[in-house]
Amino acid sequence: MNFEALDGTKLIIFMIAGAAFAGVGLYLLLRPKAEGAAKIELFGLKFESSSAGLLVFLVGAAFMSLPLFVKEQKETIPLITQPKAPTNRANPSDKPGEVSPADPVLLSGAKVVEEVEPNNEQSAPNKILHGQRVKGEVFKDEPDWFVMPVPEGGVRGDQIMLKQVSGKEVRLEAYNAREEHKGWIRTTDGARYLEIKTDFGDRIYFKVHTIYSAGPSRYELAVVPSD
């Protein structure tokens, strides 16, 4: 017969209770009785057969012998694992402001520079300067993002130049410091210009992309003074 395992505290309580019962039973069995009472012989000793002491003693002995038949329940300590830090990976965004911004990658101060990957999200753009020309290439669903600090004199009246170098088509979208869409241009051959007619705040975001999947489209981007 299998008995349910008990924890150590419960076993100790049962043993203490058993000892108490056994002690009371022995007292009832061994105390002097009136002559002529019916007796039984147990363990070489004579007891009154009608006495409840025998029953009480047996109950106490049963409680005390529980550790012989019932296994002690082992206390298990749950394994505490360190929770993983949440990852904040986002897919390339079609609009600015959907992910937390990060420090932009500052390109060199040369007049003509190459983009630095990865810059496929608005949260991780390349930083370019006013008048600087940047070269890059895009694939479908893999846009390039740039940010340009607006100089003290502003950029109203200047032009955003987008030039297609190879491929089917490239497009550019411009956003102001409040991440509002302020215009776009596309080109399938040569350069196109978008005149800046409004204030952009302290920075301009550029998103260059293509809708065609036939290989990469190479381009050049710059903000230049109007002629």
Question: What does this molecule look like?
Answer:
Keywords: Membrane, Transmembrane, Transmembrane helix. The structure is a single chain. The chain is α+β, with helices and mostly antiparallel strands. It has 2 domains: 62 residues, no CATH class; 120 residues, Jelly Rolls (Sandwich), CATH 2.60.120.380. It has 3 helices and 13 strands, in the order H-E-E-H-H-E-E-E-E-E-E-E-E-E-E-E. A 6-stranded mixed sheet has the order 3-5-7-12-9-10, with no helix packed on it. A 5-stranded mixed sheet has the order 4-6-13-8-11, with no helix packed on it. A two-stranded antiparallel sheet has the order 1-2. Helix 1 runs antiparallel to helix 2. The longest helix is centred in the N-terminal third of the chain and has 23 residues. The relative contact order is 0.14. About 7% of the residues have low confidence.
Number of helices: 3
Strand order in the largest sheet: 3-5-7-12-9-10
Radius of gyration from CA coordinates: 45 Å
The tally of domains stands at: 2
- Distance between the ends: 101 Å
The general outline is rod-shaped
Number of strands: 13
